[in-house]
Amino acid sequence: MKKIEIIPLDGIHIENIGKLPLGESKANIEKLLGQPSDSSNDEQLFYDDYELRIDLDENENAEFIEFIYGPFPENTELSIYGVNPFQIGANQLIKILSEKNNGDIDDSEAEYCYAFFNNSVGVWRQITEQDVEEDIADMKGNNEYEDNKNWLEEDLIKAKNFWSIGIGGKDYYR
User: Fold this and answer.
1) Chain-centre distance of CA 153, in angstroms?
2) Secondary structure class of 73 (helix, strand, coil)
3) What order do you get walking across the sheet with 11-14 strand by strand?
4) pLDDT, tens digit, for every residue of 45-56?
5) DSSP string for 147-158
6) Buried (b) or exposed (e) across 55-85, using 16+ Cβ within 10 A?
7) Which of 66, 70, 121, 162 is an S-S bond match for 86, by CB 3.0 to 4.6 Å?
8) What is the C-alpha separation between 165 and 163, in angstroms, rounded?
9) Which pLDDT score is estimated for 41?
10) How high is the pLDDT of residue 36?
11) How many C-beta atoms surround the C-beta of residue 22 within 10 A?
12) Sign of CA dihedral 154, 159, 160, 163
């Protein structure tokens, strides 16, 4: 597992590789991480081995770094503020990010997506535990639960955490 520390407003540090700061040029990113995955384009670099995406600004510098393989990454172990964002639980992560942000938060899509304005951190997930519990109740009522039990139980586990976390530079979400 590649250990990666997410450092809001700064960048990321990959154990035994080095630091990738926000604002880094595309050329230097490629020197550090190698050639991006085939799904990359002029605006986004994908690195499957690091389970991340880097968005480039108009000058081809990193403006946003997002880890997109949650909540069960296969190759990476992340930390932000000393905790693994894909293991601590959604509510606890929101509490920590809110405390560290110490200011305005975009919670217009609460439970699914949050953007923390002061530390430029964003988190997202497609489903919540409540969503899955409602699906389970509906399927039990329709006698469909047993046929769908395995994927519903898997979704319930996935819904406990966010599925992506990203950082941008100062005022990225403003």
Assistant:
1) 22
2) coil
3) 18-21, 11-14, 2-7, 76-80
4) 999 999 999 999
5) HHHHHHHHHHHH
6) ebeeeebbbbbbbebbbebeebebebbeeeb
7) 70
8) 7
9) 92
10) 97
11) 22
12) positive
Element (H, E) at 9: none
Share of the chain above pLDDT 90, in %: 100
Residues 26-81 have pLDDT tens digits of: 999 999 999 999 999 999 999 999 999 999 999 999 999 999 999 999 999 999 99
Partners of 21 in the β-ladder = 11
Helix (H) or strand (E) holding 77: strand 76-80
Residue 121, burial from CB neighbour count under 10 angstroms (0-12, 13-18, 19+): buried
At residue 114, the pLDDT reads 98
pLDDT category at 10 given cuts 50, 70, 90 is: very high
17: closest CA among 49, 44, 54?
49
- Alpha-carbon distance of 9 to 65, in angstroms, equals 11
- List the structure tokens of 7: 């450092």
Classify strands 2-7 and 76-80 as parallel, antiparallel or unpaired: parallel
**Over the chain, what is the mean pLDDT?**
97
Residue type for 75, please?
A: N
| For helices 145-158 and 129-141, angle between their N-to-C axes, nearest 10 degrees | 170
